[in-house]
Amino acid sequence: EEQAEDNSSAECSEPGTMDLKFTSSRKYISISVPSKSQAMSPHIKSVDDVVVLGMNLSKFSKPTQFFICVSGVFMFYLIYGYLQELIFSVEGFKPFGWYLTLVQFGFYSIFGLIELQLIQDKRRRIPGKTYMIIAFLTVGTMGLSNTSLGYLNYPTQVIFKCCKLIPVMIGGVFIQGKRYNIVDVSAALCMSLGLIWFTLADSTVAPNFNLTGVVLISLALCADAVIGNVQEKAMKLHNGSNSEMVLYSYSIGFVYILFGLTCTSGLSPAVTFCSKHPVQTYGYAFLFSLTGYFGISFVLALIKIFGALLAVTVTTGRKAMTIVLSFLFFAKPFTLQYVWSGLLVVLGIFLNVYSKNMDKIKLPSLLGLWKKSVEERKSRTLSQTV
């Protein structure tokens, strides 16, 4: 007993450790209290907390968190889509899609800088060369997407943006030699057929249809498919934050676009036009950028709390609602072919999500249903015989 007391006193004398022992059992509970030098910094402590726009969602229940995230995604992205189409509805603005992207990148850089100042760790972790590549891809994604609205209807652009899987699969086959299962192939076929059908409907009913818009949005889709992998790899490899990624990628992209517009003499006409319509251009562009920045924050929170499966479902519903509101608020020709082709694209999205979560979503097979029905018939026959 004296030896046990000596051992316990020696252990309790260690700094930052308190042991609670019970004489009736050999088991004991050890509670470690870190010293001041080992204390975590504030930004590391709050890693598990989900903070969106200064609001800590971790304090609420799961249903409340889901309601807040879904409300934020729908509210901000519906306003984002409406403002984007509203800007291009201004007479004479359609040739200035790249200038709108320049303004949008400028606002995103400012928002990222403000958010970066609010966190504890302000160091740049990802190398500058990586940011130059990411910025180039971001410019291609958003610039080509905005410019395509000068040639396409907004619903057609949204439908194309839903089909990122197609260039991802093509790149995976030719670049990485990947092999995909039948569900992924079926998803790509549904999306491809839906896109072709939707584009044919657009070319039939739209008086100002231009194939240039299809080429631009297709290139934007390819850049968007690549940028996600590059961003994810860079953030995991160097442990970079979202605010750091936004600040440096969009600020470098701002320089790229500014240099390109200056060399092509596209800056002066855009500035002249926007100075004549400051509210319809700069005012809407500010709200357009702000709602887009807020919307992505709620999407990331939704992914972190509930997973990618539910997030994809919510964002797909948001895109469908955006297309409906586009037809309601902005006059454009309509045909039922839009509906069937859109449903075909939605089916492709569902198959893609199902393929990535086959272990979580178990759909009954035809063979399983047939065996189940045979067993039920046998059980009924046996019961009748008895």
Automatic annotation (TrEMBL):
Signal peptide region: none
Location of this chain's protein in the cell: Membrane
Entry membrane topology: Multi-pass membrane protein
A Gene Ontology molecular function term of the record: 3'-phosphoadenosine 5'-phosphosulfate transmembrane transporter activity
Keywords: Membrane, Transmembrane, Transmembrane helix, Transport
Alphabetized InterPro entries for the sequence: SCL35B1-4/HUT1
TM helices/strands, residue ranges: 66-84, 96-119, 131-152, 158-175, 182-200, 206-227, 247-270, 282-302, 309-331, 337-354
A cellular-component GO term for this protein: endoplasmic reticulum membrane
Protein family: Belongs to the nucleotide-sugar transporter family. SLC35B subfamily.
Protein name in the entry: Adenosine 3'-phospho 5'-phosphosulfate transporter 2
